[in-house]
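Now produce a polypeptide, keeping tokens residue-aligned:
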Amino acid sequence: MKQTYMEPWSKEYAVKYADPRVRLVASGLLAANGHNMQPWKVRLDKTDPTVFYLYADSSRITNEVDPYARQMMITQGTFLEYVAVAGKKEGWDTEISLFPDGTYDEKNLVRSMDTLPVAKITLLKAQPQDTPLYDATFLPDTNRAVYQSEKLSSAQVSSLKSLSSQNGISIKLYQDGANLKKIGGYAMQSATIEAGVARIMDESNAIFRANEAQKNQYRYGFSVEGQGTSGLMKPILQGLLTVFPSMNTGSAASRNFINNTRTSVDNTPAYAMIVTLDNSRLTQVESGMLYSRLVLTGHTLGLVMQPLSQVLEEYPEMKTPYTEFKQLYASNGGTVQMLFRVGKPTKGTPLSMRRDVMELIVK
């Protein structure tokens, strides 16, 4: 079956669109995003061909794991940074104005998302620039496989930490034994908690695509590739899951989730965090932009990354580890916006599904 869900990953995909704004949106579509929900909507300005607006797609909130839509807003930032990188390649400076019409009314969050843009993007003509970051946008944003045991070099650490130039947003990186054990312990504790909460697992299972037909139909969510399955085992497992869907639900799904987290924790040479002084919507978006810079720069340094977000989720059952982790790693009432593992990969990882770019464009 033709894999239409893979078409946006081709460098030839965006060039067929005459409107430069649509071409840049096609690049943004490749960014890392929570649960691969791709929760973006874009409105093209009808009077100015250099302006477009990004909105959070309220219909794609994962309410159970992200009840306050914090991860949703980080995902808006990851998109914007990919747009900015692609703009440089195409000869545009992207002037990004966050929340140009004001911030959300938290008491009417869904309505705010539907009516207030996250960002206004204005394109300013510039000299095209060749940049390795652009090539890196076509690589997988997440690698869940085993990482090499080799620590990051001082040069790699310095390159990553230097990416944060904003006040109130910092990058912390840990690769000493004590912190690896402590952070890994929280990752396992939170994964075990999540695996035991039925409504959380049901939310993930609802967006699992068992076979090629489902992946072509929906083009977002999870698939067997995300669990590290490739080669001949991919069609075999897809066939089994299509005939026996219970293999990936209930206790079986919980066991798989815990086992996969254990593999990640046991094969991680370093953890990194994005820590902020406040937890405003603006800061959440800026954290997402920073995470994309980390992912793309990491690729140029031979590094890959994988978010381990469970301990940062804010539903009731996760309150205890969330509070402890925040107190340990975000002093003075700050917030850990992202926790992720970093290292050199032992193998490549498949690309994930992406929607057609025109599905993001709204009137």
